[in-house]
């Protein structure tokens, strides 16, 4: 391949990088647009490699080379700006707890188990090793419910079960008392969400929301409208809650997307990933194409003790384990940014697009 052909391929890649960088900012719900929110890290790496390679073939006398370098560099900067908050170099959203013996700890284990998964013993082994206070399992049917109930120890006295045969079932088990637990269907009669209050050992009451909206994929839902609407409904509930909030689940959306960012801002929530790492949970079967789809957000009253991914449970998702300390007296030190009127209006419009 001669130099001219090589540069032609780089120019083509540059145009593709520009398009893929712009796509996430396009305010439409079609799956073939929204899907480009996901592989942002991979695109950033490829753009950087293309820029380095192009510099090795840079011709000082060619104006096109200068123009290409400026464009591809601008793309790289935009991509890095979106990724940077999820690196250990960025400021943390939620601070690390300094308590040696927290008065009100709460540990959470969330997992998309893959409904067709037959190696269910791997999940139970991981749960028994981590000993979480709260367990959230999604993509669970009645077979999964029966297996979990049979093999889970008796410490989990409280539960909310919404098994479904459509891969959107949801199970929650807790060592702590659940108050007025409810299964709600916010956007679809086949897509449950769990809403419950919880009583901590300190006798403080907190609010939990668990969701698993449909992804913007042709085999699930050709639009992201339902997913976005459910997320904004939960964001509005979180912001107006009179209790401290934890939101968890498989969001089928990446941490850095405009939708998840709006969800966090409107909900006045903190992202446990920011300042710590990406913690990719999907696809567990690929080393290259992975991104963070499973999330835990919290309000300002919590501090983080630890965060890690679970073991391989033979699912296409990796579990997430997070341990918190409830420290409301320090909430003022990590205030989330207040949403703007424009953000509130945008969230309200998205929430109202789907009504049952």
Total domain modules: 2
Widest beta sheet: strand line-up: 3-4-2-1-12-11
Structural class: alpha+beta
Number of strands: 12
Strand content: 15-25%
SSE run: HHHHEHEHEEEEEHEHEEEEH
CATH superfamily annotation of the largest domain: Endonuclease/exonuclease/phosphatase
Can you describe this structure?
- With 356 residues, the chain is an alpha+beta fold.
- The protein folds into 2 domains: 3-86; 105-352, Endonuclease/exonuclease/phosphatase (Deoxyribonuclease I, Chain A, 4-Layer Sandwich).
- Helices cover 34% and strands 21% of the residues.
- The strands form 2 sheets. The chain has a 6-stranded mixed beta sheet with strand order 3-4-2-1-12-11, with no helix packed on it. The chain has a 6-stranded mixed beta sheet with strand order 5-6-7-8-10-9, covered by helices on one side.
- Helix 1 packs parallel to helix 4 (63-83) and helix 7 (225-240) runs parallel beside helix 8 (258-267).
- The model has no long low-confidence stretch (mean pLDDT 91).
Task: Chart the SSEs and their pairings.
Blueprint: H1 3-22, H2 31-34, H3 40-56, H4 63-83, E1 105-112, H5 120-130, E2 134-138, H6 142-151, E3 158-162, E4 170-174, E5 177-184, E6 193-199, E7 205-211, H7 225-240, E8 245-250, H8 258-267, E9 270-271, E10 294-298, E11 302-309, E12 320-326, H9 341-352
Helix pairs in contact: 1-3, 1-4, 3-4, 7-8, 7-9
